[in-house]
Structure formats: structure tokens, C-alpha cells
Amino acid sequence: MSQFQQIALELPEEIYSEIEHLTEEEKNSFFRNVLQEQIEQRKTSDLENQMKQGYLEMAQINMELCKEFEIAEEEALRTGERLIVSKE
To answer: How high is the pLDDT of residue 83?
Structure first.
């Protein structure tokens, strides 16, 4: 069974008034659910940021590779064009 840790939480009166009618267990459950959702959202956001950074880094690497092979691609294009023209 999972062990629980207890935390103290201070809330402004206007927020507390929204939940004061709940039982202690309902409050505990409510806060566990809210925290779990926030944790999941943060994990998702962190993963999205990591992926974005990775794609940006790969874009730079891919651009450098394209530049390195640009001359070879142009030569292959000219060779292909010459072959097509010579067959006509």
C-alpha cells in the first residue's frame, strides 16, 4: 500500500469558500487529483519543450548536411539533364 505524506496548505478565503462544504476525504481526493493533473501537464509540457529543442537542433544539423551535399546534388542534376538531352 502506498504511504501518504501530509502537507499544510494556505488558501485565500475566496478559494477556500469554494471547497469548505466538502468532507476531509473529498478535500484530500480533490487536491490529490488537482496535483496529479498539474504534474502530468508539467511533464507533458517539459517533454514537448525537449522535443521542440531536439527538432531545432536537428534542423540545424540537417541544414549543414544539405549545404555539404549541395555541390554533389547540383552535379547530379546537371548530369541527369545532359543524359536526357543527349537521348532526345
So the answer is: 86
* End-to-end Cα distance, the chain: 80
- Residue identified by cell 469554494 is 18
Closest C-alpha to 26, from 66, 86, 18: 18
DSSP secondary structure of 38-79? HHHHHHHHHHHHHHHHHHHHHHHHHHHHHHHHHHHHHHHHHH
pTM assigned to the model? 0.62
**Residue-wise DSSP of 17-36:** HHHTTS-HHHHHHHHHHHHH
Average pLDDT over residues 55-81: 92
